[in-house]
Design goal:
Blueprint: E1 11-14, E2 19-22, E3 30-35, H1 46-64, E4 68-73, H2 91-99, H3 103-120, H4 136-148, E5 152-154, E6 158-161, H5 177-182, E7 197-202, E8 220-222, H6 224-236, E9 240-246, H7 250-265, E10 270-276, E11 279-281, H8 297-302, H9 307-315, E12 323-325, H10 327-345, H11 360-373, H12 379-390, H13 397-411, H14 427-441, H15 445-457, E13 460-465, E14 468-473
Helix pairs in contact: 4-6, 4-7, 6-7, 9-10, 11-12, 12-13, 14-15
The protein binds adenosine monophosphate and zinc ion.
Zinc ion binds near residues 36, 228 and 253.
């Protein structure tokens, strides 16, 4: 990295501080990012994909700013219990029962779909995608350190972390520990404190699990939280720059990661905590894999909607704002996205973008767009600037292409290259179009209008230009 490089000021909302802060890297020109990845016991849903699109925009923003990025995203293939804290069954066991497959095949099946959905959404493959089951020794070593330092205790079902040993446990979530204690009604079993969590769970004595390992404490499997701490440490070191996830992870998973990493390593764990707000179904319905009540990217594709229209929809909303999903909203985004692609593709196509010199006026656009991108990743404002510049007659067509290309490196909407989507018109609509043509020829315009209404009702429309009729999908 040349020492003369000037890095732009990037501001990010840090959940730990509850404020937007200027990003200062641990090592100049470098950034380490750990993003909590999927639990592969079911299809990833579009809420999960929103969190991964956010993590992707974050890494691509740093790429754009010329940082050397190391991004790690784990695959949780063991230990995530149905109750995120410590109780319930391992989600993989629930999936085995549901599908009659062994745990390893379940993990493979859903990791493959996750990767497919990432490709369809242009999500950059993280530099490392470690599986929890491939890092059991690191997790055991970390638990041993915690044990040596007196942070653990044993119950009949596992090894637990004693959160009362920390003065500031739960600070990330601003947990009211006294309030939690006062409200303790749940059965804590053998746990000493309500917030204590499992580091290692013992296998049942009367059956054999598909996924289990020997450990100094007995045969069993790791808790979900220790996986992320151990893998983050393995690939990014004990102290790194940014950790991401959805907001649901703040009170338990991320609070526990901080507790065990900082106690095991005697140093600060992460400098910036970033969280994506939830995508819910309109009407306040929470999407959850465990209830089976969720939409996937496949449900979007089945409706013949471009997956990148979903990426566009996510980018139109700031990542810290909750998103209410419904089909109308997605269809409107798909129309907007298609218009944007069409508009960009009417620009001069025979231009070598690398050779375009951007004049002073174009540079002003860069300053404005950079400011919004680097202001806590305001992608909706970046998109608004792109729409504006396309209509700006003071820019040449080549400059417009070059500016769009520059920011599409971050947005990844394929604005200059996306293939025109071929519309597959259903037979029913084709017949209505034919009948409408005949009605028009017979100058029966009332009948022609009625037929057009039927076509619109089926989700298509017609544009009559220069004696030709073009079919548009609504
Ligand atoms: P999971 O597969 O449940 O472990 O979740 C993977 C990632 O998706 C985590 O960062 C979650 O916080 C995030 N997530 C889960 N549900 C949603 C949702 N409805 N909207 C946004 N992010 C979510
Ligand atoms: Zn995690």
């Amino acid at each position: 990295m040349p020492t003369t490089t000037e890095y732009p000021t990037i501001k990010l909302f840090n959940t730990m501080a509850r404020a937007v802060e200027v990003f200062t890297p641990i090592k100049r020109g470098q950034v380490g990012i750990y993003s909590c990845g999927p639990t592969v016991y079911h299809d990833v849903h579009i809420g999960n994909m929103r969190a991964f699109i956010f993590a992707d925009i974050l890494r691509r923003t740093f790429d754009y700013a010329d940082y050397k990025v190391t991004q790690v995203m784990n695959i949780t293939d063991v230990g995530h219990l149905t109750d995120d804290a410590n109780d319930g069954e391992d989600k993989m066991i629930v999936a085995m029962r549901r599908e009659g497959m062994d745990a390893w095949d379940i993990a493979k099946k859903y990791t493959d779909t996750f990767l497919k959905h990432c490709r369809l959404l242009n999500i950059h493959r993280p530099d490392y995608m470690p599986h929890a089951t491939d890092h059991i020794p690191e997790q055991i070593t970390m638990i041993k350190h915690l044990e040596e330092k007196g942070y653990t205790y044993k119950t009949s079902d596992g090894i637990y972390f004693d959160t009362s040993k920390l003065k500031d446990y739960g600070h990330l979530a601003r947990l009211d520990i006294e309030g939690l204690k006062a409200g303790e009604r749940v059965d804590m079993g053998e746990k000493r404190n309500i917030t204590d969590f499992a580091l290692w769970k013992f296998s049942p004595t009367d059956s054999k699990r598909d996924m289990e390992w020997a450990s100094p404490w007995g045969v069993g499997f790791p808790g979900w939280h220790i996986e992320c701490s151990a893998m983050a440490g393995r690939y990014l070191g004990d102290h790194f720059d940014i950790h991401t996830g959805g907001i649901d992870l703040i009170p338990v998973h991320h609070s526990n990661e901080i507790a065990q990493s900082e106690c095991a390593n005697d140093c600060r764990f992460v400098n910036y905590w970033m969280h994506t707000a939830f995508l819910n179904l309109k009407g306040g319905l929470k999407m959850s894999k465990s209830s089976g009540d969720f939409l996937t990217l496949d449900s979007i594709i089945a409706r013949d909607i471009d997956p990148l229209a979903f990426r566009y929809l996510c980018l139109m909303c700031h990542y810290r704002m909750g998103m209410d999903f419904d089909w109308e909203g997605l269809k409107a985004a798909a129309t907007g996205y298609r218009r944007l692609v069409d508009r960009v593709q009417t620009l001069a196509r025979d231009v070598d973008i690398a050779l375009v010199t951007l004049g002073g006026y174009a540079q002003e656009y860069i300053a404005k767009i950079d400011a919004d991108l680097f202001d806590d990743l305001n992608t909706s404002k970046v998109l608004a600037h792109i729409w504006t510049l396309l209509d700006d007659s003071k820019l040449t067509s080549a400059e417009k292409s070059a500016l769009v290309a520059r920011y599409d490196a971050v947005l990844q909407l394929e604005l200059l290259t996306h293939e025109k989507q071929e519309i597959v018109v259903p037979t029913e609509v084709q017949e209505l179009i034919k009948a409408r043509e005949e009605a028009r020829k017979a100058r029966d315009f009332n009948q022609a209008d009625e037929l057009r209404n039927k076509i619109v009702h089926l989700g298509y429309n017609l544009k009559d230009t220069n004696g030709k009729t073009e079919v548009i999908k609504l």
